[in-house]
């Protein structure tokens, strides 16, 4: 019922007021491109976990002099997961509300300040094939018949520091008596602008190989238990060898990840979905037969280097302990420092 | 600790290759020729055979060189055996050309030179594709087809181990 009433306000029926949201740091805050569900790219303000979201809600009366009766004005900060096949159920993992005005009357346009202090944003924004995770601000004027509301999407990125343990991947695989190879990738965890350095060493070659390539596959998994669904997408295909190798030959791999559109690895987000990446080594023989070996890699997002002065760092540290709820220090650790 | 702004993209260390491996004959040598079509018999009982010569250094084949004579129905037999026993997707054979076997044709039918050449090329492509397949190489029927004098249709199907 509530959803229907909200939609009416988009058509402008009885639209006596306009509501919009403006961030306090709109001038300085960075914007990033993010794909929308229909594949287009739009720019949104970028936030990190722990950052404060503050701004103003402007309520503009369309007909000056005509009062706006309302049952309350509020602003919400929402983080939710939407599964495309189950649109009715939004899974909210962050839901904060600030009341801006108690039920009453507005006789003129008014601006309300809001601040969501040190908001937890545990997951990265993601728009995929079957699932979407988004964060948004929603300002609402509650009314008797139809609410007036406005949403403003933001994008959240999760940053990591260099992993402490990052072992290489090295494995011997093959088909008995036909093809034995040893492949090696220099790391198991790569950041989004990293380089995959590796090699393929041929131990036995009794088939006629025509060429070899390495593919990056993104697998989006939605659903749980019996209704798990995997959506595979080949993000990249990169030929690393053209021609027939012989025993003892080593083929180098050098694959720059910055050129591909990828997200960090997302594992079991809120128990709703996962996004994982795999390297697929493919050998193709002269009769177009394909021999392949898939290996998962972990992708993570490295922050841009931020050099903060000592006084700036001290200010931030002090801010974190203000107020009744001291913030966990994990938020600090996530920003890349040198 | 300051982080490098340029990633280390130097090659990983690898063992130097043995020169006999680098310049020696490759371990995947396998060549099969289908040639020299001969039509034997007279009248209605004629049929064409082809010479199938295999040269290889793959250890799974007992003989490194073999020459046998096979006719189209032998290739059909091999295809059926592989379709039944192995998990591979068997490539197609050149057509059976039943129309060419009907009477009152203006030409030589299945003994027409151009048709035999077309069929020969198709059979050569077929057998090379099969013989290079790692899974087909384990089948007894393939070894019998390529290296035994004649095909024993009462053979016991099975796998060949190296």
TrEMBL record, chain A:
Highest taxon in the source lineage: Eukaryota
This protein's name: Vacuolar protein sorting-associated protein 26B isoform X2
Organism this protein belongs to: Danio rerio (Zebrafish)
UniProtKB/TrEMBL annotation, chain B:
Top-level taxon of the source organism: Eukaryota
UniProt keyword terms in alphabetical order: Acetylation, Lipid-binding, Phosphoprotein, Protein transport, Transport
An example molecular function term from Gene Ontology annotations: phosphatidylinositol-3-phosphate binding
A single GO BP: late endosome to Golgi transport
GO CC annotation, single: early endosome membrane
Domain PX: 28-152
Protein name: Snx12 protein
PROSITE patterns: PX (PS50195)
Pfam families linked: PX
Organism: Danio rerio (Zebrafish)
Cited InterPro entries: PX_dom (IPR001683), PX_dom_sf (IPR036871), Sorting_Nexin (IPR051074)
CDD domains: PX_SNX12
Lineage: Eukaryota, Metazoa, Chordata, Craniata, Vertebrata
SMART domains hit by this protein: PX (SM00312)
Residue segments, region Disordered: 1-24
Family classification: Belongs to the sorting nexin family.
């Amino acid at each position: 019922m509530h959803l229907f009433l909200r939609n009416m306000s988009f058509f402008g029926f009885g639209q006596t007021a306009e509501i919009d949201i403006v961030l306090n740091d709109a001038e300085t805050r960075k914007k990033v491109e993010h794909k929308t569900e229909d594949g287009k790219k739009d720019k949104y303000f970028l936030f990190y976990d722990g950052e404060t979201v503050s701004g103003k809600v402007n309520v503009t009366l369309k007909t000056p002099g005509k009062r706006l009766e309302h049952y309350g004005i509020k602003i919400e900060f929402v983080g939710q997961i939407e599964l495309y096949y189950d649109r009715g159920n939004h899974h909210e993992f962050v839901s904060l509300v600030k009341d801006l005005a108690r039920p009453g009357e507005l006789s003129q346009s008014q601006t309300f300040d809001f601040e969501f202090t040190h908001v937890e944003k545990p997951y990265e924004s993601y728009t995929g094939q079957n699932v979407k995770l988004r964060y948004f601000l929603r300002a609402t004027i509650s009314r008797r018949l139809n609410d007036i509301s406005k949403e403003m999407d933001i994008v959240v990125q999760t940053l990591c520091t260099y992993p402490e343990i990052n072992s290489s991947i090295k494995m011997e695989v093959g088909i008995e008596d036909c093809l034995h190879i040893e492949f090696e990738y220099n790391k198991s965890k790569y950041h989004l602008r990293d380089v995959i350095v590796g090699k393929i060493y041929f131990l036995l070659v009794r088939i006629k190989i025509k060429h070899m390539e390495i593919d990056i596959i993104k697998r989006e998994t939605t659903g749980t238990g019996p209704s798990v669904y995997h959506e595979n997408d080949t993000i990249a295909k990169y030929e690393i060898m053209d021609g027939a190798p012989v025993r003892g030959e080593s083929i180098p791999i050098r694959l720059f990840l910055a050129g591909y559109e990828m997200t960090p690895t997302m594992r079991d987000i809120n128990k709703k979905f996962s996004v994982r990446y795999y390297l697929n080594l493919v050998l193709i023989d002269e009769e177009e037969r394909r021999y392949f070996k898939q290996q998962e890699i972990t992708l993570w997002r490295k922050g841009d280097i931020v050099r903060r002065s000592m006084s700036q760092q001290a200010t931030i540290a002090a801010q974190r302990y203000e107020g009744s709820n001291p913030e966990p220090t994990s938020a600090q650790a996530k920003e890349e420092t040198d | 600790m300051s982080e490098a702004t340029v990633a280390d993209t130097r090659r990983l260390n690898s063992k130097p290759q043995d020169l006999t491996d680098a310049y020696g004959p490759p371990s995947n040598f396998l060549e099969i020729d289908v040639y020299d079509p001969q039509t034997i018999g007279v009248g209605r009982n004629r049929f064409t055979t082809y010479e199938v010569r295999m040269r290889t250094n793959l250890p799974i084949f007992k003989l490194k060189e073999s020459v046998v004579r096979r006719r189209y129905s032998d290739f059909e037999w091999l295809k059926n055996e592989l379709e039944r026993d192995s998990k591979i997707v068997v490539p197609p054979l050149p057509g059976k050309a039943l129309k060419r076997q009907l009477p009152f044709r203006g030409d030589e039918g299945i003994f027409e030179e151009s048709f035999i050449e077309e069929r020969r090329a198709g059979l050569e492509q077929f057998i090379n594709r099969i013989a290079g397949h790692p899974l087909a190489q384990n089948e007894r029927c393939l070894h019998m087809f390529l290296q035994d004098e004649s095909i024993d249709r009462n053979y016991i199907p099975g796998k060949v181990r190296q």
